């Protein structure tokens, strides 16, 4: 009822107004003069009326009556004689600006705008004309008469008009031109005439959003629309659009309440639904992600489709708040999954006294152990169009006399080398020794193999080159054979090729002394060794998907909330940018019972593409205060594992051969520290990107400190 009070002092049938450059005609049919406050019953007070005429409060769409026994005025909303449900389904902002095209080279690294996006306009300039278009639909079963409406900017009326009559299922648009202003402003559209006040579902009679909101487009499939139109949702309507808007409102509410010392005002930015677009069953995208070419705004999401498991999900959500949808929308605005930095035992390949270490100069290096884990359902494919090598470095010399290779189609040429050190083997020249000639394998129906004179070496290196197509290697299996008497030979596959040989269980040797799952690195639950530092159920982007944003992610979103100092959010398309905020210098402080430990050995391993390989990236000892400063160079072993001949210069502890900056999805965002105190006692500890980011967020831009306590 409050929304009608703006009309109480008006005695005309129409009025033209001009506000903020917008000219609109507002139809005021049915306006009455305001009651005289001094007249009996005018205020609607108790014991002040003799008849209904004394109780007229000037507000439309109510039945005013007088209770004779008490003299009290009663104001009852008119019944909804139209049997309709008008809904303000969304407010679009025009012109639309498509999401930025961000290019990653290689995948997940070194993000940069495409030339077209770099040259494109990101936001309107101050004073540009922006048009807000409100879309109103009749979701009821009966037609509606013409209905009055108005727009408000920052709470002040900015224009209005009358919507035409709508049949059931009909819709109409109303628009407002506004001279653009940077910063946080609101646009509101509301229905203000009958039957709006007698509408049984008033929750959808108005919509308000930020003028500078991040705009999301949603696509709804027929099955989703049908389910939503037959079930009550959280705002007591039966409408896909109303539920989607409720989700957006709840996400914005989460932003507003996510306050902490790192985000005193909560998350500054807001989202808004640009459109809710029903699509036919044949739409090529569905069940979630929408390809960039089909997305006209900052982000897009599809509800329904063949891949979403629609029935079970809808029954679970039951028209209420759905954190899973918010989680996916959070990806649209740049947040990554924190559970990428949860560590399971199978991710940790670090060993104590390893008998063999695996290396490669290719992007498939971290997955090299899969070559010895049975026939792959899909090959290990490199991302580089160049020859690559895969190497095994044994702790003791291993004798071999046979090798077999299996590739996934295409034409590959390969050759086996041996040496005493990896740096010798990668040269493919003396003192490295070629144990086979160059062997060409075509297709994936048979193995390529070679037998050679028995030879013993610590390093065995397979050099592979693709000869056709895109030149990328596609390797399925690599088998080595030696004398059955050698400790490296496993019981099992024996061959008739003289001399008799046995298949070496390389994977068994590599995993024989794994630390993961032992008392030194115990399991927490199931196969989990360690959850990310934010916690399993402490953030919308964690595995539990609670209705909660941690201080870390509230701060992270705010790092993108003031583009070019104009009070505007960064246009989306970017992902995980906040992972790049790492202090310039980073120090681990090793302690026990609060006392610093000097001369402790610190070896650092890094998660890479979902695995922590058994290769030390950094090493050193703590100083007299227990401090270990992350070095500016990696170890030679780490560099050689990725095809380099000298230690890699790094900008931060997460720098790799692919980039100075972390992977935007966080797949290399965990460090494993092996700490050995002066007495020889050893412990393992983890650090991850959120810990470094929080140090940066606290203002420690130049120096980050990370205490590590030993048992």
Walk me through what this model shows.
The chain has 711 residues and is mainly beta. Strands 18, 19, 20, 21, 22, 23, 24, 25, 26 and 27 form a 10-stranded antiparallel beta sheet that branches. It has a 4-stranded antiparallel beta sheet with strand order 10-9-12-13, with no helix packed on it. The longest helix has 18 residues, at 240-257.
Summed up, what is this model?
By secondary structure, the protein is mostly beta strands. The longest helix is centred in the middle third of the chain and has 18 residues, at 240-257.
Tags for this model:
711 residues, mainly beta, ten-stranded antiparallel β-sheet, 10 helices, elongated, disordered N terminus
| Rg value | 34 Å
**Biggest sheet statistics:** 10 strands, antiparallel
Count helical runs.
10
Mean pLDDT: 85
How do the strands and helices of this protein lay out in sequence?
Blueprint: E1 14-19, E2 22-27, E3 62-67, E4 72-77, E5 86-94, E6 102-103, E7 112-113, H1 115-119, E8 129-138, E9 147-153, E10 156-163, E11 171-179, E12 186-191, E13 206-210, E14 214-220, H2 222-228, H3 240-257, E15 271-278, E16 299-303, H4 310-317, H5 323-332, E17 343-344, E18 356-360, E19 380-381, E20 388-407, E21 411-419, H6 422-425, E22 433-434, E23 439-442, E24 448-466, E25 474-482, E26 489-494, E27 502-504, H7 506-511, E28 528-530, H8 551-558, E29 585-592, E30 595-596, E31 601-606, E32 618-621, E33 627-629, H9 636-641, E34 670-676, E35 682-688, H10 689-697, E36 703-709
Parallel strand pairs: 14-15, 14-16, 29-36
Antiparallel strand pairs: 1-2, 3-4, 5-8, 6-7, 8-11, 9-10, 9-12, 12-13, 17-28, 18-20, 19-25, 20-24, 20-25, 21-22, 21-23, 21-24, 25-27, 26-27, 29-30, 29-33, 31-32, 31-34, 34-35
